[in-house]
Design brief:
- Helices cover 29% and strands 23% of the residues.
- With 132 residues, it is an alpha+beta fold.
- α1 runs antiparallel to α2.
- The protein is globular and about 45 Å long.
């Protein structure tokens, strides 16, 4: 699981070469969009901006289990499947298909969870289709 809350997190991820640049570019665009929305009148520079109090971008990896995401505050037993997402989008980037799941935890905290299709089983796919 990769958790992104700052511009520095993105830079570290880019240098690590764990993900393709085009996917990191996609996440960075969304991160900057959140920066612009949340920083409207605070005058914080991008390099000092953090989502610590507002949410995070979560990228699940092949070793992650969608049912065990207590590390990011989701139900210990059902994880992602226990949520009622605000939105789910199917995204194709390069040769990779993933699902972007927006979970609003409260009025001020949101998680953008990116789930690669290779860790989606039948029950999870049913949950995705039901909540799209």
């Amino acid at each position: 699981m990769i958790i992104i809350k700052t511009k520095k997190d993105l830079e570290i991820l880019r240098r690590s070469k764990v993900l393709k640049d085009y996917f990191i570019d996609f996440i960075e665009i969304n991160f900057i969009r959140q920066y612009e929305i949340l920083n409207e009148d605070k005058n914080i520079i991008l390099e000092e901006f953090s989502l610590n109090n507002d949410g995070a971008f979560i990228i699940l990896e092949s070793k992650d289990n969608v049912r065990k995401l207590d590390e990011i505050g989701l139900d210990l037993k059902c994880g992602l499947l226990s949520t009622t997402p605000e939105a789910i989008r199917t995204i194709i980037i390069g040769e990779k298909t993933l699902y972007e799941v927006l979970v609003l935890c409260n009025n001020q905290y949101a998680l953008y969870i990116y789930v690669p299709d290779n860790i989606v089983d039948e029950e999870t796919l049913e949950w995705i289709n039901k909540n799209k």
